[in-house]
Amino acid sequence: MQIAIRDVTKRFGDFTALEQVRLDIRSGELIALLGPSGSGKTTLLRIVAGFDWPDAGEVHFDGEDALSHSVGERNVGFVFQHYALFRHMTVFENIAFGLRVRPRKFRFPEAEIRKRVEDLLDLVQLGWLAGRYPSQLSGGQRQRVALARALAIEPRVLLLDEPFGSLDAKVRKGLRRWLRNLHTELHVTSIFVTHDQEEALEVADRVVVMDKGRIQQTGTPQQVYDHPHTPAVHEFIGESIIVPVTIEAGEVRHNGEPLGLDCQGLESGTAQLFARPHDLAIVPSSGEHRLRGVVRRIHGIGPARRVEIALDSEKSETLIEVDALRAQPLRVGERVGIKPEQYRLFPTGT
Amino acid sequence: MAAAREAQLKLDVRADPPFVKWAIITVTAAFLGLFIVVPLVNVFAQAFAKGVDVYFAALTDPDALAAVRLTILVAFVTVAANAVFGLVAAWAIAKFDFRGKNFLITLIDLPFSVSPVIAGLVFVLLFGLQGLFGPWLAAHDIKIIFAVPGIILATIFVTFPFIVRELIPLMQEQGTEEEEAALSLGASGLTTFFRVTLPNVKWALLYGVLLCNARAMGEFGAVSVVSGHIRGETNTMPLHIETLYEGYQAAPAFAIASLLALLALVTLVAKAALERRSPKDWATRN
């Protein structure tokens, strides 16, 4: 099912949770709403679900107005961060709930309900826990039951609010791979909210980065990681090194010295150079066109090392962390040069 | 070895000397015995002081039976009214945010802090002959004060915090996610209430109902003010006991009292059974 979100605005008192949000979600897509807390991502999800209504804007499901329907009528599967399983029902009854509460006319016979629940239990690999109560399950098991319960009503769209947020790191990793596979298998249009960029980049077909109630960027994980549109996106997705620079007549300068870099079309003035830790090369300090600094600390295990470098500066000190290969000989206190191989320039104050 | 162990035990600060332990237990037991067991036993002793015949005669006296019936009626209506009100109020407070919520919570506690006699008087001032609505009620031939409706009103007032106060913390803790989940799965509001909300609070609700019932049956002060003490008509069990006792009929008075005490004991046993059956997380909270 396609979802079209048109200029949705939502305020809570003085706080603007969503500002003119526009988003198109294609049928069968797995979309991640990514952003820090307070960015409006959960509010957007709840509006799509039908738990909240926007102050302005429209939401369409396959071209049909969704806002005129209640949550029950929209046929959405919602998975809560804290599972929200019915605590007085067994796993089996939790999953069967959506089938049992149908109006008598549309209700399946008991045998059909049992069969469907058993199929779902197999799908989430929890058949052996059918008779247990939610309090007897682990967090990962509970979340899988919650997912099976949401899938039982054959939803047109699956909405997941921080689905792995309350699980420990290891379970989380396993479960998100599992969710990815499940989506490949079922192909139901899905939106999931997360503040974990790693999770969003790994699982989603497309990532929607949100900040302060606005969509900052929409794109595939590769696009948002490699070509962030704004400093906020650059900082939020992956690690960022930020170096204050000036631009004078098309020349990028740090500490007065020209860096020999393309100014990416920026006007003269102050700017910020953004790069990833692995996109900077440590080179000798002698020579032209490079950032210069002193190695402060070297740490890290594995093939790459993290090198902390204090950049030369007349004003405040800039500390950056650069990845270097173990093979490269470096000492603490050594003067080095740094060449950005990939970078983005943003004017200061954006 | 043994000596070393002895020395270690002396150093263990958690282990009080045995005499302290036994002294504390004895004081507790003696206090409970003196103030609870002895009076309770005395009630039964006095009830049977004039023999079994007098005891059963007192219980089967038409006025006594009328008092029992009235008490059960009052308790039944009170519990039903407070259960409905309790669910509504707890729902409002636990699941919505609105202006004046704290004031509402304070108001719910009011009956606990107001003397029951004052509660009774309030109703007399409102509905009595000289009261605010008195003339209107008299003109329409509706009797509230010195009649059953007044007794029920006063009892509801005195007992209404019991159920709400059990429900509010539980509902607050549970939040609204399960209800939202049920709605998203296509359940109607009513279905959600009966399949999700009510089962989640049933133990707390039952517990509140028991407490409310116990208090409703035993209420004296507020009921005494509004009832008018008409034997066989507006006397509840506690009022009937008082009437008998004042009339120098000690044995019948204690007979009825023993019945009331028995009801209290049944409630106590039911409460203990409930705590044993109910889920742990809920039982430990109370």
Could you walk me through the main structural features you see in this protein, from its secondary elements to its overall organization?
The complex is a heterodimer of chains A (350) and B (286). Chain A is α+β, with helices and mostly antiparallel strands and 350 residues long. Chain A has 9 helices and 20 strands. The longest helix of chain A has 18 residues. The model of chain A has no long low-confidence stretch (mean pLDDT 89). Helix content of chain B is 80%, strand content 0%. Chain B is mostly helical and 286 residues long.
Which consecutive residue ranges of chain A, at least 5 long each, have pLDDT under 50?
none
Q: Biggest interface in this structure?
A: A-B, 26 and 16 residues
User: Cα-atom Rg of chain A, whole angstroms?
Assistant: 25 Å
Span from first to last CA of chain A? 36 Å
List its traits:
heterodimer, A: 350 residues, alpha+beta, six-stranded mixed sheet, 20 strands, B: 286 residues, mainly alpha, 80% helix
Describe what is shown at a glance.
With 350 residues, chain A is α+β, with helices and mostly antiparallel strands.
